[in-house]
Write a structure and sequence with these properties.
Blueprint lengths: L4 H14 L5 H12 L8 E4 L14 H11 L5 E5 L7 H13 L5 E3 L7 H10 L8 E3 L6 H12 L7 E3 L7 H11 L7 E3 L11 H12 L5 E3 L7 H11 L7 E3 L7 H13 L5 E3 L6 H14 L6 E3 L7 H13 L5 E3 L7 H12 L10 E6 L2 E6 L19 H4 L1 H5 L5
Parallel strand pairs: 1-2, 2-3, 3-4, 4-5, 5-6, 6-7, 7-8, 8-9, 9-10, 10-11
Antiparallel strand pairs: 12-13
Pfam families: LRR_6
InterPro entries: Leu-rich_rpt, LRR-containing_regulator, LRR_dom_sf
Protein name: LRC34 protein
Amino acid sequence: MSVLPDLHLHYVQACQNLSQPENPFIARVLQEADKNDEIGTKGITLKLAGNNHLVPVPRVTDDDLGVLVSVLGQAAFVTGLDLAYNLLTDAGAKTMATFLQENSSLRYLNLMFNDIGTSGAELIAGALHSNQSLVHLRMTGNKIGNQGGMFFASMLTINSTLEKLDLGDCDVGLQCLIATALALTQNKSLKAINLNRPLLNNKQEETTVHIARMLRNNSSLVELHLGKHGMKNFGVERLCEALYRNSTLKYLDLSCNNIICDGVKFLGELLKKNRTLKILDLDANRIEDVGAFYLSEALAMQNRSLEVLSVVKNNITGKGLVALAQAMQSNMTLSHIYIWGNKLDRNSCVAFAELIEFGRLEPGCTDVAPYQVDGEVFLAEQSHGLARHRFWTPRCAAVAPGAANASLEILPVSE
């Protein structure tokens, strides 16, 4: 460590003094801290995630967290803390909430897939009423429920520092989504929010209507994830109506919904006039060939702003895929396209193989790779996409980060 050596030495000594040297948790903290050789004005992120499948690691418990935060107050250079996939409960959330109220240097906190519930969510959200340093919070996979989500919605009406909030897979409900949408009509700081997979019993798409109203007035949100909302054509139409008046949203995730070709018609019309959207994720819907034609028409003729389109697993046959490939021939802005999981035929394989062969489509910007057998062209799947590693990141560099999660390259706000 060449920068801030005194601070780092103090941090290491504090860790060693708080427990026996053979304590596996403390040993791991020291090991992870020593991996960071770029302590400077940006600080470091201490990575203590418990999902390393290549090297067994001890998982952080509530007691371990108490030890950790007692020394982080003396390590201002630690600006990020990754505690994903550990064993933290509401007791650990209480410790973290106290730390957030007292700490002024932590900017990134990842608590995804722990065992934090509603009371823990209340404590952490309450701490953010006064915290003025945290910029990015990930609560993904903690079953905080609808009431826990309501605490975060209330926080968004007060906090003016947080820029990225991830509440995906948190079992939030109807009231939470409506309250969050209302909060974001006034909030001017949040740039990215993940609301994937809420628990909704109402199929009237009431939440989508409220989110659409929010988009009409919000002038700060750049990234919005609405996967697994049960959204249908009605909801897509409401969103498109709102986005005609929105000039900030660049990343729209509508994956895993019930969108068919009629809903994509509204998106096609929007793309003809919208000059802001850069990433559109329609994975795991059912747009079929007609929907692909709507998209290809908009992209070929008028849209020159969209950079990424994902239509993975949409029951599109060769005709629709060829239309999308042809649209790329005339649209030089669209640089990434993901099509795996559809009904590839000979013509579609040849069309995308030619895009790659002639340099129109870079191999790292799509999820298919051409190969030949007995002179016939086929496409193989690549581990590329918009969010293939949203929930985990491999320690080995088998896939370049820019290919595994292209959204991080195009919109750093999603990092």
